[in-house]
């Protein structure tokens, strides 16, 4: 192997009293896909900010292809070395692909296009700009119209554009910070195909993900951080799932079955099942799903699997009252639910963990206590009052119940780590002691430990005689469910009892059904439900 | 390539998380404490103004002067009360400054006789209905704003900017551009009476602020305003009826503005065609320097009230110091900017 594209040795970074990174290091070779994993707070983001020149290490050295890193603040020099594709997009959604690619260097001519600026007074030649953009995209095999507005692209296309832009600055090392968090299975496949293609051209990637399966699918080596330290670096092929999780959590001998990071499977029989708590009958929401029927019984955790476009998320949201269905019926505990009415769903006993905690789950600048009790303000005092003492007591109970790591109940949720924020959202849903809990992608962007905890908490909720519906496309979320219902293109494609294989469920989510199943589906599509 | 492992990391693994949590918690706690006192950040400013006033003129610390300042603050503070509620909910209402004028004018147009006086009313309703009519006009304006913003999903800023202009025009048209000097007695009573040695308007204002503050602190629908302003979608998924509550807040804000019109009219005994004109800048300034966020979800009514008092006291102190009134506008602008800078550093938060 030649000189590594990036090499960080013994870097330490402190923020006040907190040591964010303690003598950690990482080495990424050219053309390598290197995974960086660790629980929230392990120091991954700090390392990224050091590697991308946003911050300066207190000690240690960073070298790019053998040369020392540019000075912090020399943006142009850093751009030529490294780029980072964040969870949140750094392109301007209302501008075209071409303009985003050459932002702030629109009028620079071809010869000096790697440099910033150019004459401020030189007018932009739009036709030439588009041509150069098309050329650049073609060079890296990105199939996107340079004249399209970014807002109209899919998430992975947007990421391709960001990667292409990074490469056009001359960077041969790209940090991908949870690039798959917002993608469905197909999008991930396309992204990975593109990354492998670029890898073959010598581009190196540092891949950060909470989704360990992706690490095995894409990466050659993996580095584990824990508690601000470097724990290990090893070829992915030599490191089993258990060993990897152990390195991340620092706990050995988790008795989970090989390859599972989920909750302990219940393996209960049908006899233990109670009455039907959630009944969905012939539900239709135009543009999302049609004629879906589904039952969840007391004591049961049911998984609803499906890709982004399958309509499973919208189905979960409809049960919670976010959308008003065109046809069909939802019943909780045998009583029909007023369609499209969130307060009605809540009072009927539906708890809801929304898909995106930032957009729908949390009021970021308000306290943990306030967020956790947002659904139960009617229980916190007489005559429509909300008594602070009762709010605090209630919040403390939820904080204990869900093991939320927060300095105080009055801390704004924005100050919490992702996993703990998600626990606040779950607390909010569980606060009403719902008979039916609907959780949409409940472990999205959550560290392994919290993930395990949350899934275990859902199981406990079911064991207490309630029902839980987990909507997700992550197999780890679905592994502990009593049943998994797979959706494809707005219809129920298949149903699996516990003990399914990954291949079966993924195949059903991807619409790869046998011809027999396909026929059944067609029939039910035309003949209504009976 | 061989796996490299840090020695000793396993041993420290168990102890490290709790230590990390503790160290991370300390700075967070300090910052929040400061942020919690954000609403009080103008209190020292008020005290300093008091001291300056005391030094500048012996007339400052007299009950006549201070009650005068309080009475002059009442109309502005009611607008600020309404605007603070609306801003906390994450909306904006510019039309309040026209409501303060058009409310009383519409009421008088309906109750004053069609002949005899200088102002030609319709004389449709008995005179005692003037105040209820004025408040009703405010409620109607708020309801229409709510309809445009929440049902038609129009931009609140532009809708209420249109409302501001339109309502001002309505007032000018109804009053034919003249001041109305025949004011019903009920208006005059509220504007001129004293209860327990202080003007009635001051008491009413204090009560309204106390009621509003208590509602925001201890009522579930009051708490809901913060949730809606902080993240409307999260509030919606938590079962809060976002549109209904926002609509109510817009109506309450306009009613408060109309009531401010009653007090103002009663206080000065007439309505001029430009009553309230240009006030909205002061309203926003007082609200924002008092710690209410323009982005919603943050702030208290107490903070907003200190904002009003700061603006009024500065003018009062300057007047007593003999600064010509022509400089008032300049000083008002300057104090807004200075107060913003102070609160920016007092709270350590950016004000975007």
From TrEMBL, chain A:
CDD domains: ABC_Carb_Monos_I, ABC_Carb_Monos_II
Pfam families found in the cross-reference section: ABC_tran
InterPro entries documented for this protein: AAA+_ATPase, ABC_carbohydrate_import_ATPase, ABC_transporter-like_ATP-bd, ABC_transporter-like_CS, P-loop_NTPase
Every ABC transporter domain range: 6-252, 272-514
Alphabetically ordered keywords of this record: ATP-binding, Nucleotide-binding, Repeat, Transport
SMART domains for this protein: AAA
GO MF, any single term: ATP hydrolysis activity
Source species, domain of life: Bacteria
Species of provenance: Streptacidiphilus pinicola
Annotated protein name in UniProt: Sugar ABC transporter ATP-binding protein
Automatic annotation (TrEMBL), chain B:
InterPro entries: ABC_transp_permease
Transmembrane domains' residue ranges: 40-60, 124-150, 157-174, 194-219, 245-264, 276-294, 301-323, 329-347
Name of the protein: ABC transporter permease
CDD domains in alphabetical order: TM_PBP1_transp_AraH_like (cd06579)
Gene Ontology molecular function: any one: transmembrane transporter activity
Membrane topology reported for the UniProt record: Multi-pass membrane protein
Record keywords, A-Z: Cell membrane, Membrane, Transmembrane, Transmembrane helix
UniProt subcellular location: Cell membrane
Recorded GO CC terms: plasma membrane
Entry keyword Transcription regulation: no
Main subcellular location: membrane
């Amino acid at each position: 192997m030649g000189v590594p594209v990036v090499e960080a040795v013994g870097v330490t970074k402190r923020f006040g009293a907190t040591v964010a990174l303690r003598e950690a290091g990482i080495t990424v070779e050219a053309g390598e896909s290197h995974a960086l994993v660790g629980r929230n707070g392990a120091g991954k983001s700090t390392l990224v900010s050091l590697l991308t020149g946003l911050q300066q290490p207190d000690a240690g050295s960073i070298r790019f292809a053998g040369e020392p890193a540019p000075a912090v603040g020399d943006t142009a020099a850093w751009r030529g070395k490294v780029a980072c594709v964040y969870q949140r997009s750094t392109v301007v959604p209302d501008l075209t692909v071409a303009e985003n690619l050459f932002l702030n260097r629109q009028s620079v001519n071809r010869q000096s296009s790697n440099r910033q600026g150019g004459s401020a007074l030189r007018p932009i030649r739009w036709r030439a700009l588009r041509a150069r953009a098309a050329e650049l995209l073609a060079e890296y095999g990105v199939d996107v119209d340079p004249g399209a507005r970014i807002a109209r692209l899919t998430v992975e296309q947007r990421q391709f554009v960001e990667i292409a832009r990074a490469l056009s600055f001359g960077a041969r090392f790209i940090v991908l910070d949870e690039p798959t968090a917002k993608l469905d299975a197909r999008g991930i496949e396309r992204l990975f195909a593109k990354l492998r293609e670029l890898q073959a051209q010598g581009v190196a990637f540092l891949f950060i993900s909470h989704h360990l399966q992706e690490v095995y699918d894409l990466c050659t080596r993996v580095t584990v951080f824990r508690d601000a330290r470097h724990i290990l670096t090893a070829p992915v092929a030599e490191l089993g799932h258990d060993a990897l999780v152990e390195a991340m959590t620092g706990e050995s001998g988790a008795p989970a079955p090989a390859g599972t990071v989920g909750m302990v499977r219940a393996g209960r029989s049908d006899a233990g099942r109670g009455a039907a708590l959630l009944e969905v009958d012939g539900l239709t929401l135009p543009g999302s799903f049609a004629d879906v029927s589904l039952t969840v019984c007391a004591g049961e955790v049911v998984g609803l699997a499906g890709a982004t476009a399958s309509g499973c998320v919208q189905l979960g949201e409809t049960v919670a009252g976010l959308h008003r269905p065109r046809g069909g019926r939802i019943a909780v505990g045998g009583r029909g639910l007023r369609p499209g009415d969130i307060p009605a769903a809540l009072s009927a006993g539906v708890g809801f963990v929304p898909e995106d905690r930032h957009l729908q789950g949390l009021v970021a600048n308000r306290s943990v206590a306030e967020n956790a009790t947002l659904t139960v303000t009617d229980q916190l005092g007489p005559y429509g009052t909300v008594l602070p003492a009762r709010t605090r007591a209630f919040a403390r109970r939820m904080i204990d119940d869900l093991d939320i790591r927060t300095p105080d109940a009055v801390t704004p949720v924005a100050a919490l780590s992702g996993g703990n924020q998600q626990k606040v959202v779950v607390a909010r849903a569980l606060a009403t002691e719902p008979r039916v809990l609907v959780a949409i992608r409940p472990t999205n962007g959550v560290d392994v430990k919290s993930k395990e905890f949350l899934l275990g908490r859902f199981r406990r909720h079911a064991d207490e005689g309630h029902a839980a519906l987990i909507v997700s496309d992550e197999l780890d979320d679905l592994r502990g469910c009593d049943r998994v219902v797979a959706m494809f293109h707005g219809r129920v494609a298949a149903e699996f009892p516990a003990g399914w294989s990954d291949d079966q469920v993924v195949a059903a989510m991807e619409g790869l059904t046998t011809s027999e199943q396909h026929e059944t589906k067609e029939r039910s599509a035309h003949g209504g439900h009976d | 390539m061989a796996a490299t492992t840090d020695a000793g990391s396993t041993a420290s693994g168990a102890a490290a998380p709790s230590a990390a949590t503790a160290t991370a918690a300390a700075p967070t706690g300090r910052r929040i404490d400061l942020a919690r006192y954000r609403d009080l950040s103008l209190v020292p400013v008020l005290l300093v103004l008091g001291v300056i006033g005391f030094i500048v003129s012996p007339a400052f610390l007299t009950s006549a002067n201070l009650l005068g300042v309080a009475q002059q603050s009442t109309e502005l503070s009611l607008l600020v009360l309404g605007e603070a509620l609306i801003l906390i909910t994450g909306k904006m209402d510019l039309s309040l400054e026209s409501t303060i004028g058009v409310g009383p004018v519409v009421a008088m147009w309906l109750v004053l006789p069609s002949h005899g006086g200088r102002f030609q009313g319709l004389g449709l309703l008995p005179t005692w209905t003037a105040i209820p009519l004025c408040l009703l006009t405010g409620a109607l304006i708020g309801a229409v704003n709510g309809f445009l913003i929440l049902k038609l999903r129009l931009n609140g800023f532009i809708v209420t900017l249109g409302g501001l202009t339109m309502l001002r025009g309505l007032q000018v048209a109804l009053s034919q551009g003249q001041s109305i000097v025949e004011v019903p007695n009920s208006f005059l009573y509220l504007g001129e009476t004293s209860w327990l040695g202080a003007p009635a308007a001051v008491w009413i204002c204090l009560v309204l602020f106390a009621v509003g503050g208590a509602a925001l602190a201890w009522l579930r629908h009051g708490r809901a305003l913060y949730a809606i302003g902080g993240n409307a979608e999260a509030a919606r998924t938590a079962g809060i009826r976002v549109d209904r509550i926002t609509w109510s807040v817009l109506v309450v804000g306009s009613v408060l503005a109309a009531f401010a019109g009653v007090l103002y009219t009663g206080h000065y005994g007439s309505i001029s065609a430009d009553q309230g004109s240009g006030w909205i800048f002061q309203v926003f300034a007082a609200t924002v320097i008092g710690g209410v966020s323009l982005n919603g979800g943050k702030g208290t009514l107490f903070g907003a009230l200190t904002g009003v008092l700061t603006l009024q006291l500065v003018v009062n102190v300057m007047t007593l110091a003999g600064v010509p009134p022509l400089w008032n506008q300049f000083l008002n602008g300057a104090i807004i900017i200075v107060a913003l800078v102070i609160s920016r550093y007092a709270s350590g938060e950016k004000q975007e």
